[in-house]
TrEMBL record:
<feature type="repeat" description="Solcar">
    <location>
        <begin position="113"/>
        <end position="198"/>
    </location>
</feature>
<dbReference type="GO" id="GO:0055085">
    <property type="term" value="P:transmembrane transport"/>
</dbReference>
<dbReference type="GO" id="GO:0005743">
    <property type="term" value="C:mitochondrial inner membrane"/>
</dbReference>
<protein>
    <recommendedName>
        <fullName>Mitochondrial thiamine pyrophosphate carrier 1</fullName>
    </recommendedName>
</protein>
<keyword id="KW-1133">Transmembrane helix</keyword>
<dbReference type="InterPro" id="IPR018108">
    <property type="entry name" value="MCP_transmembrane"/>
</dbReference>
<comment type="similarity">
    <text>Belongs to the mitochondrial carrier (TC 2.A.29) family.</text>
</comment>
<keyword id="KW-0813">Transport</keyword>
<keyword id="KW-0472">Membrane</keyword>
<dbReference type="Pfam" id="PF00153">
    <property type="entry name" value="Mito_carr"/>
</dbReference>
<feature type="repeat" description="Solcar">
    <location>
        <begin position="13"/>
        <end position="100"/>
    </location>
</feature>
<keyword id="KW-0812">Transmembrane</keyword>
<keyword id="KW-0496">Mitochondrion</keyword>
<dbReference type="InterPro" id="IPR023395">
    <property type="entry name" value="MCP_dom_sf"/>
</dbReference>
<dbReference type="InterPro" id="IPR002067">
    <property type="entry name" value="MCP"/>
</dbReference>
<feature type="transmembrane region" description="Helical">
    <location>
        <begin position="81"/>
        <end position="97"/>
    </location>
</feature>
<keyword id="KW-0677">Repeat</keyword>
């Protein structure tokens, strides 16, 4: 039988429970999907037109031949920190915002559907998460983009960014990132609630939270993927072009002009392969961890 839906409107999850369960879900989901994340970023950072882009097998073959197997885990340290922090902040802010919105609805006699409630709260949780974790997202991208066999350290990369681009260089591309993450997170939580509502007819299916999370992750990423590509290009602009700053709109128009509309969808297939299982594992581990924490309390 399916466990209680701890993300549903009106659910009673404390900030402490959400923080612990969110951090666990982030750590576990990252451990399973690190190589796919590396490949996705490499595909997104290609500057060729969509027609002349390197294919997935070519990217993987070149990466393994020139950089070794360990290259699939480049940027894993900041990525692990990112996922643990992101998971903790995302689910904690989700829990707090959900209760606040629930109280707001009661005071003003509003009646939002569970899916709409989760969509709004998810957007807020996405905004909170990206502000806390964005420097680690940028560091992860810079380390993954390094095509040399020798690994570079997170601290030296961070020092170089601050020295050459200033402190705010750590936040390059945060505007498209805010739009991307907020919309993706909102759509993921909203889709998850719709899937959970539908799944109540099939509550004896094992891992139902994971299946609903898979559907939610694929839906959200499918809609917002171009913003994710734009975010990665913004994060690498100073490295690729040797210039300190360019607006997200300028970079967006360059992609359209030189690579066509499909340039925004480079790495989309790998992204779905990565994001859908990540969302499935993340949401399942969160639900399971909250259930476990509550059982310890009782």
């Amino acid at each position: 039988m399916a466990r209680e839906d701890h993300l549903r409107k009106g659910s009673d999850v404390s900030a402490y429970e959400a923080l612990i369960a969110g951090a666990i879900s982030g750590a576990v989901s990252r451990a399973f999907t690190a190589p796919l994340d590396t490949i996705k970023i490499r595909l997104q950072l290609q500057q060729h037109s969509f027609k002349n882009r390197k294919t997935l097998p070519t990217i993987v073959k070149n990466l393994l031949r020139e950089e070794g197997l360990i290259a699939l885990w480049k940027g894993n340290v900041p990525a692990e920190i990112l996922y643990i922090l992101y998971g903790g902040v995302q689910f904690t802010s989700y829990s707090i915002l959900s209760k606040s919105l629930n109280n707001f609805e009661k005071v003003y006699n509003l009646k939002l559907s569970p899916a709409t409630h989760s969509l709004i709260v998810g957007i807020g949780a996405g905004v909170a998460s990206i502000w806390v974790t964005y420097p680690f997202d940028l560091l992860r991208t810079r380390l993954v983009a390094n095509s040399k066999r020798n690994l570079i350290s997170m601290t030296s990369t961070m020092s170089k960014i601050i020295k050459t681009e200033g402190f705010f260089g750590m936040f390059a591309g945060i505007r498209p990132a805010m739009l991307s993450i907020a919309s993706t997170t909102g759509l993921m939580f909203g889709s998850y609630e719709l899937a959970r509502d539908f799944s109540r007819k099939y509550d004896k299916i094992p891992f139902i939270e994971g299946i609903c999370g898979f559907i939610a992750g694929a839906t959200a990423k499918g809609i917002t993927f171009p913003l994710d590509t734009l975010r990665k290009r913004c994060q690498m602009y100073s490295v690729v072009h040797g210039k300190k700053y360019a607006s997200a709109f300028h970079i967006f128009m360059n992609i359209i002009k030189k690579e066509g509309i499909f340039g925004l969808y480079k790495g989309f297939g790998v992204s779905i392969l990565k994001t859908a299982p990540t969302s499935a594992i993340s949401l399942f581990m969160y639900e399971y961890s909250v259930t476990l924490l509550k059982s310890f309390k009782s």
